[in-house]
Amino acid sequence: MVPPTTANPRPGGRSARIQNSVHAAVRTLLEEHDRAQLSVPQIAQLAGVTPSTIYRRWGDVHELLADVAVERLRPESAPEDTGSLHGDLTAWMEQFVEEMASPEGRAFTRDAVAFGGAGRPACQCAAYTREQLDTVLNRARDRGEVAPAGQTVVDHVVAPLMYRILFTAETPGLDDARALVDAVLERANAAQTTPTAGI
């Protein structure tokens, strides 16, 4: 979805091996059990680490679920370059909706929002989204296109979709994403072509 952020780099060495093993164990157990059934000893046994390792690093299962969610939602590649802002933003939002509105994406997003100290995981996921949008919008500006502010896209495209994903049983579709993208770009173009009063 978005390129890996430099603000939260992946750990390396032994730390990375432990994280990978524990995260893999959590993902495996989630395929077979409800989140409420997971325990630190159960995860530790499958990951091949001691429970104290998990307690020291993550504190409890909720913090661990939040960390797994952040890693699951971390983007792996730059947004597609279609040659136009409309194409880039539409393609990215379609991918965003497909991933976030899937049962797995929905569950991990809720973990990131619900768990973790001081809202940290949710903030990291929000940063990933903003980085992705900035890549798309800056690319458009470099091409000489009119592009809305990143926060405007968050407020008028991302936020309505995420509200439905997180707080309703409704699943937003690709047509919903396309309609929101069209509307925000139309407003940006209209604002650019509207003459300023008194000039």
Automatic annotation (TrEMBL):
Q: Which residues bind DNA?
A: 39-58
Q: Which residues form the HTH tetR-type domain?
A: 16-76
Question: Which superkingdom is the protein from?
Answer: Bacteria
| InterPro entries the record matches | Homeodomain-like_sf (IPR009057), HTH-type_TetR-like_transc_reg (IPR050109), HTH_TetR (IPR001647), Tet_transcr_reg_TetR-rel_C_sf (IPR036271), TetR_C (IPR011075)
Q: Which PROSITE patterns match?
A: HTH_TETR_2
Q: Which UniProt keywords apply?
A: DNA-binding, Transcription, Transcription regulation
Task: Extract the Gene3D superfamilies matched here.
Answer: Homeodomain-like, Tetracycline Repressor, domain 2
What is this protein called in UniProt? TetR/AcrR family transcriptional regulator
Species assigned in the record: Jatrophihabitans lederbergiae
Q: What is the lineage of its organism?
A: Bacteria, Bacillati, Actinomycetota, Actinomycetes, Jatrophihabitantales
